[in-house]
Amino acid sequence: MRHVLSALVQNVPGVLAHVAGMLASRGYNIDSLAVGETESPDLSRMTFVIVGDEAVLDQVRKQLEKIVTVVRVDDISAQDYVERDLMLIKVEAPEGSRSEIRELTSIFRGRVVDVSPTEMVIELSGQEKKIEAFIDLMRPFGILELVRTGRIAMVRSITRPMVKGMSPPIDHLAAQ
Amino acid sequence: MRHVLSALVQNVPGVLAHVAGMLASRGYNIDSLAVGETESPDLSRMTFVIVGDEAVLDQVRKQLEKIVTVVRVDDISAQDYVERDLMLIKVEAPEGSRSEIRELTSIFRGRVVDVSPTEMVIELSGQEKKIEAFIDLMRPFGILELVRTGRIAMVRSITRPMVKGMSPPIDHLAAQ
Fold it and tell me: What's an example GO BP annotation here (chains A, B) (predicted)?
């Protein structure tokens, strides 16, 4: 089972080392970790994707909560949530394959951010499966380099009924 | 000075703890860290943004290279590069302010990924300054939650002359 945990931590030196050390010493299987700023300069948010059963999740959560610099831990995957990952991918793109790569990029709602006579860099955000499908499509062209951020997630708003005159959420589209 | 380091590391448990521990014990000021998968399942890539002079950068680089599980370290900011960060932001969006938020989102090439009668979740990727400008624009509406991935970066292709019939790189546009 895949779980997404979101931890609000104090923005102080050493907090990442503390958290990473705890996870490593206990041998938890962390699939992805993203650390980024929040709306407050004093706080950072760490998003973990953990593979394991409920018992493992519970342990990780309790261990995180024990760390003084960890303010709050939420199990996002227990709720309805939006998940995103960002990738930069550099592929071989000689003149003959450039238009095909551009078309695939457009279908996946990606963006060409750099181009040279032989290569292209594409930016793509979305759910993990969408990003992996795009990577598979790029393989035949030749992947030169690939960087991903690790996943971030946010719980959807609780009240979901549609409001008159509003267009529907485009998440399902954007996520393919 | 702001430096972007990209480290290719073995995808083994404990490597993040090792790297984070080294950085913390030496008190380096890490502005951002992203850890994500690469084109190879055996390797992960860590992107650091470090604030400091050349001497600090050199120390961090040498310390990273000493770690056995670190395969390679590149100073991306020494070259011409593309940098991206991803954000999910939840803002207060009652009916009266929804269209204005949608318009700002569209100008910044963001995407509305969730909506409720009172709130909206927007996804936005781009350079740090673009993301920060958007956050500032959202403040008056009321920011409820904000998650960021931390920055990733990729060196541009070396051969930059334009090829006949190609559209120019849209990076400058996308980055506002």
Answer: L-valine biosynthetic process
